[in-house]
Hints:
Blueprint: E1 2-4, H1 8-20, E2 25-28, H2 31-40, E3 47-51, H3 59-69, E4 74-79, H4 88-93, E5 96-99, H5 104-115, E6 123-125
Parallel strand pairs: 1-2, 1-3, 2-6, 3-4, 4-5
Helix pairs in contact: 2-3
Amino acid sequence: MLVIDDDTALLDVLRPVVRSAGYNVFATTSSTKGLDVLRFDTHNVQLVVLDFNLPVLNGAAALEHVRKLKPGVKVIGLTGFKGADLPESFGRGVDQLLTKPCTNSHLVACIQVLLGDALAQTLHIL
């Protein structure tokens, strides 16, 4: 699993939550670094949690690259934007859209549904 979100506090919260659910996660605050992980480690990335409001390359642009690099990967969009503020292409392009703040249990449940609860290892932060 790959988590791309520029909120370091959120990544710090996700570490133990995702670890306790048994998932291996590569997390980064940069969409370009996240895309590099996907580009060079496509076999280990089954799901991407992608923030929309990212610097340099926003979530909609990053999502296009994610879909080109690994078309079958599951994507959870995570955003503080609501309704008309969120580009339709982002909302349509993700498998599940969650609005911040969302509970840890809701995020883990979405991950489990999309992955079929099959992946487990350790957590790595880039």
